[in-house]
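Case study.
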Amino acid sequence: MLSDDLRDLYQQVILDHSRNPRNSGELPQPCLHAHGDNPSCGDEIDVWVKVSDNGHIDDLKFTGQGCAISQASASMMTQKIKGKSKEEAAAVREDFRRVVMGDGTPANEDALGELILLEGVQKFPQRVKCAMLAWRALEQALEGK
Amino acid sequence: MDWHRIRTDFPILDQQVNGHPLVYLDNAASSQKPRAVIETLSHYYERDNSNVHRALHELSNRATESFEAARKKAAQFIGAASEDEIIFTRGTTEGINLVANTWGTQNVRAGDVILVTGMEHHSNLIPWQMLAQRTGATLKYIPVLDDGTLDSAAIETLLTEQVKLFAFVHISNSLGTINPAKELIAKAKALGAVTLLDGAQSAGHMPIDVRVLGCDFFVFSGHKMCGPTGIGVLYGRMALLEAMPPWHGGGEMILSVTMEGSTYKAPPQRFEAGTPDIAGVIGLGAAIDYLQAIGLENIQRHGHELANYAMQRMSEVPGIRILGPQNGHRGALAAFHLDFAHPHDLVEFANSHGVAMRGGHHCTQPLMKRFKVPGTTRASFYFYNTLEEINRLVEVLLLARKFFT
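After joint prediction, the assembly is written out as follows.
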């Protein structure tokens, strides 16, 4: 007997991404790179991003280790963000943040696609940082923050 | 012993969590409190609450009497020669920091060696790193073998006359290893080293006699042994305490104060500046009474039974790797790694089935690196846990396997 909250948190799509992460690996230099970690739980993500001269994200990959949520979120992020402009990526990131934190409604929910499946994290406040880890690294890589 | 009856002394255990009976297996982080301790705290706040030592009124007399009685209990609990060797602290961490900042600052010089082990909790590591940085001393580690025990060959080469202090954990919170404290302390003492034993996981789990162990300092926390949070004990041999300068300055620790300077009280008051955690101390005294009524030998024996049963049952889970000694000689905990789920996912899953465990690095990051795991999941037991609860744990681990694979 499983609680609905737990089933929402660990949907099959999420478990599949964590077991078989997409866009796993490093990109050759030159590219943007950032490392993110959650010191309290030891989760780690490295994000590599290739941005074209006109500001499009041509490619991105990640490596890391951690819980299913952090790894699935990273995997889904790479699929969603590839091919977007930096501005579009920032908009998706903000909408995703709103969804996992339960902080307001996303400006463009449809654009989130599969990422909406991670909204179950809302019910598990301690896991928000897991879901956001790859996104913080992406922001750092793109903005140098 | 009627352990099932003893379990009913803990009101918190009788509840449902997420629709399942609570199975509390996070005792190495913090134990639950028996009614006797909770009632002692209520009684203190309802009848006796006031500041200790200085006032001359009835409530203060009562509070002071209970406070100092707890000091005697703590001394007797660990076999100290005198209650004046018992310093109340906020817990194990503060006790170690006190030693590092008083005895350490006074005695450790550049070129000295501070020896610890590779299985220390961060609380018995960071204060020594800081002391080493301050003084120019070198911090050295006794390596941990694959079976979770200390490398005895390395001890022979690392334990030299340069070692000023040897500080190590009695029972590892991450491996369950019970270190041969008495032998290690004797070796260190023969070479002139001062010794500190971290009893956070041993106090309340086995009989402790600091004079048999021979350590100079022994530290433990109240909340891991049925006492309140925020209270712990630093034991120090009087000869050392007397020579140590104070750490925190303030009220309670002074003899006389002038604008030019002050003189300080003898131990233990020298190290207890400010109003202490009076309720905490009195609650700790009640916890000691409670544990001693059950008997520390009985608690130790039952802990071994639980650990052995857990090792045996948990090894039935495919893909499990239990860290630490595989034989029966281990503390009442089992930290493990599963190839199908990250510790945090597993802990979340177990929680949804009412089972409370801890997942992560357990404040022993160097050790996690040593065993090449990002973290582990830890089931830690206390005497109120039952074999049925261990069966339930195994059932939930098997369910998790189905869920995550």
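Observations recorded in class. The radius of gyration of chain B is 22 Å. The CA atoms of residues 343 and 359 of chain B lie 5 Å apart. We will return to this complex in the next lecture.
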